[in-house]
Q: What sequence folds into this?
């Protein structure tokens, strides 16, 4: 294909590649990633993580930065999730990165910056 180039960049320590197709005058972004929050009802730490994530995502939107879609998964609805995450919720996944006990705004901000912006943390 003449005039069409594939650009790849490596993201942070995970090595996850992101692709964008460059066609002179046009840049197509990679598909948007989902930010997955594994939580359960009645979990105070999960509530704290939810508030922190909401604030970080709002700040990214206001700054014009890529903002993932938040997908919440109730670990009580799936025995495999319950077994895997019960002792470490809230758990946040973005791409191939995971943070357990995800309540630190700095760690969550770093995950977003590294995974979405390619900024090493």
A:
């Amino acid at each position: 294909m003449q005039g069409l180039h594939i650009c790849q960049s490596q993201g942070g320590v995970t090595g996850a590649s992101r692709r964008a197709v460059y066609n002179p005058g046009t840049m197509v972004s990679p598909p948007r990633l989902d930010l997955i929050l594994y939580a359960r009802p009645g979990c105070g730490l999960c509530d704290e993580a939810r508030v922190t994530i909401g604030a970080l995502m709002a700040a990214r939107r206001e700054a014009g930065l890529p903002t993932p879609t938040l997908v919440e998964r109730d670990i009580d609805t799936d025995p495999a999730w319950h077994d895997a995450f019960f002792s470490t919720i809230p758990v946040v996944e973005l791409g191939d990165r995971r943070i357990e006990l995800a309540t630190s705004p700095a760690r969550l901000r770093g995950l977003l910056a590294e995974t979405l912006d390619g900024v090493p943390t």
User: Anything to note?
Assistant: Strands lie at 5-11, 16-23, 26-28, 34-39, 69-74, 91-94, 97-99. Residues 34-117 form a domain with the Glutaredoxin fold (CATH 3.40.30.10). Confidence is low (pLDDT under 50) at residues 1-28. The longest strand covers residues 16-23.
